[in-house]
Structure formats: C-alpha cells, structure tokens
C-alpha cells in the first residue's frame, strides 16, 4: 500500500514574517481578540475525511489523485463531493474508526481554557462534516468539554445503512465552506471595536481565510505555509498548540480587553481622567461597597458593564449625609421590569441586551 506523503519541511523561507520575538509589536492592545481554528490537521493531527476515505471509501491512491486535482481540474467542493460520496460505512462505524486513528494535540484543551479564562471567543472553523467533528471532540474531550466549543462547518446527510454520504455545504461556492466568508460574517456581527482575528490552520481549505486574518498561524511544512510564502502573506509557523499558547499569551499581555492587570489599569486611568486624581489615588478612592478593585475579577460582559458604573460612581461627588437624628434609611426597591437589581446601584435601570462593543462568540448553526 502506498504510504501517505510525508510533509515537506520548507527551508530558506525568503519573505519577512513575524516571529515570536516581535509578536508583541503586532499586538494592538486596544482591540479585542477573537480566535478561529481549523480542525483537521490542526486540532487533530490527522484528517477525519482522509481516515475514512482510505478505509471505507475510494482508498488512498484515488484520494491523493483527487487532492492533487483541486485547483487544477476540479474545485475543492467537486473533489470533496466525490470523496465523501465514495464512503460506504455507517456513522457509528465511522466514529469508531476515528477513535482508533485520530490523535488530538495534547495542549489543545489547555489553549482553549486559557482563551476562556481571558474572555477570548474561540470558534472551530472547518471544511469537514459537523457530525464527525462533534463526535471526535466528544470522544477525545468528553461531552461536557466538547459542548463548550463552537463549530462552524459543513453538515452532512448520512443514510442509516451508510451507503449515502452527502455533504450539506455551508456556502454556495466552489469551496463549499468559504472560511474567509465565515470570518467576515463574524466581523459583521460585532458591534463596536473590531476584533483582531487570529486564525490557526494548515491546509488547502484555510487558504481563503489567510487574507482575512490579522494574525495567522500556519502549521510548518504544509499547504497553508507554502501558500503564505508564495503570496508574501506574513504568518507565524507552528508545530503544536503549546507553541501557539506562548505566542497568544504575548498578544494578551497588556491588552485591556483580556489582560486583567491591563483592564484594571485602564479603569484606574479612566477614573483619574474623570476625577483629576492620580491613577493610584483613584484606585483607592471611594467606591460602592459592593464593588471591588480586585485584579482580574472582571471579565464578563456584565462585569464590564459594572466596570463603567464603577468608574462613573467613583467620579461622582459624595452623596450628602443624612442628618444625625434621622431614622435609618431603608433602600427603596424599584419594581419596574427590566431592572437588574443584582448589578444596579439604586434605581438606575440596566439596559437589556449586550452592551455595544463587546465580543459575542460566533454562533454555531446547529440547525
Ligand atoms: Mg486542516
């Protein structure tokens, strides 16, 4: 049997490209970050489709022939339809084979958790078939962890007897799933400050998204890296998620949306601007008793909303004191609908919905 081709490790990269050393210079600290990652060959070292085509479909020789024809005599979508259409295996049997053959990057979930704790939205963006991708994540991470990860991909119709595998393409284009379009759809959904898009990928299906990314990670020696070199697209090479974690931490450091210390410093500076106090004095100034200045405490949308309230409250002159012999004041509860009493100070209504300028995770279309 013919062995799959070994990746060519490219040498003598001739274009200027960012390296880990100067990554900090790339990071704009006043823009939020959003991360998109390819699935096959990136989160998992293998390709879910290839595993199945080789065992239950057209076989490795025909798969390689079709792969090589992409962009020459066939579109990605046409070649993929032929590959998926060659399968004759039930979904449970296919998942059992993936369980045996796939290897997940051991640091992927650590990376995902780091993003979560720093309020950075993460989306899997794949040219694969969603039932397989979800099953692989369920199998390797457990359903609870898997459920936290959003997948934007193609879908598929698979007959119960396994004789029909029909991709349901996300986009009506030659790519089937145009990842560049999906990234743009995400950008369009963002209100306020546009995020810095970080994209992680390796292969042919990632080429379109390369030009959409603000910061691009390309796995060493594969088609995306080759494309970046040929087209002078700056990128950061990687082999494993543990390398990406190091670089993303550099992007986060000092970013006022994601680095707890930078968030706190920005809040102090805002108070100082409003009060005329030095940032240090502002940091220890009057605050509503229910709020704290703890570093790193605020990270969610609601907490950010509170943060603005904190700044405004700290900047206001102190409220007049009650006469010494007045009866103690009771708080007056405002029963109007739409008030979030947990987060309001007194009777200031909290508007419903997400505050403008915040990043919402890219919604997975589970339909
Ligand atoms: Mg890939």
UniProtKB/TrEMBL annotation:
Region annotation (Disordered) ranges: 277-367
Biased composition (Basic and acidic residues): 332-343
Molecular functions (GO terms): phosphatase activity
Biased composition (Acidic residues): 300-311
SUPFAM superfamilies associated with the record: HAD-like
Keywords: Hydrolase
Bias (Pro residues) ranges: 317-330
Domain of life: Eukaryota
PANTHER family assigned to the protein according to its UniProt record, in alphabetical order: PHOSPHORIC MONOESTER HYDROLASE, UPF0655 PROTEIN YCR015C
Record's protein name: Pdp3-interacting factor 1
Native source species: Wickerhamiella sorbophila
